[in-house]
Write a structure and sequence with these properties.
The protein is built from 10 helices and 12 strands. It has 275 residues and is α/β, with parallel strands linked by helices. It has one domain (32-271): TIM Barrel (Alpha-Beta Barrel). Strands 1, 4, 5, 6, 9, 10 and 11 form a 7-stranded parallel sheet that branches. A 3-stranded parallel sheet has the order 2-8-7, covered by helices on one side. It is globular. Bound molecules: zinc ion.
Length: 275
Amino acid sequence: MTFSASRRALLAAAAAGLGLRLSPGMAGTCEGSGTARTLPVGTAGGLFVGLKSYPRTLALADREVVLTFDDGPAANTPRVLDALACAGTRATFFLIGRNAEAQPALVRRIAAEGHTIACHSHTHPWTMRQRSPEAARTDIQSGFDAISAALGKPCAPFFRYPGFADTEDLNTWLASRDIGVFGCDLWASDWTPMSPAAQLALVRQRLERARRGIILFHDTQAQTAAMIPDFLAGLASGGYRVVHIAAGPGQADTLAAGPGWTSETERTIAMARHH
Ligand SMILES: [Zn+2]
């Protein structure tokens, strides 16, 4: 669906009213998916979602997707934000604490544009399993502290392990602190260099197979920033609806994996040494 001129004008006016910045080049060519609904995600007592790692995921309907971006804020983050703003679509950013310290204004921009800010550790250890439990906890806590300091308020109690490399000990600790652990249901594999067109084709193919789920991208990657406008336009034309997750009360509803489910965590860690 292409936005009509009046729709674009309305969006631009709304964006201006919110202090948002739409890049001039994109304002005239904006296509998008919008955000269908906000899903409050309670993490009381812990939450483990994302079928790549865990046997449960968020209670999404057919053709509902949650967009997540890891490893920022970074040089390509503004391009991703421009595309999301243009499409009126909200996402969740799992930030690295030391990157948030380096670019606090960009952290605040992500939040000001309506996205959810979450934590992806402080220094992105590869992997947490090579750290002592104490050092790993310190890295996670330092990440939350740095991101919240940049933001000026606590970020969402949502955490994603670098490379999905969790441990029982850390999972128990996170649950005791009411922090939800997010894996994902499908990923873009955008840690592998490829053209934006190949990137777009790959993630579209995976989404057509999965039909719903939490999707992992990296806003650090130029190939991802380049394809996101077309990806968002394709969501709209494909009948997909974007669900925006935000911190909520209690514990979120989840869906169990289908029969034959297995975790891909260990295989992923073994394969993704370079990530
Ligand atoms: Zn990462």
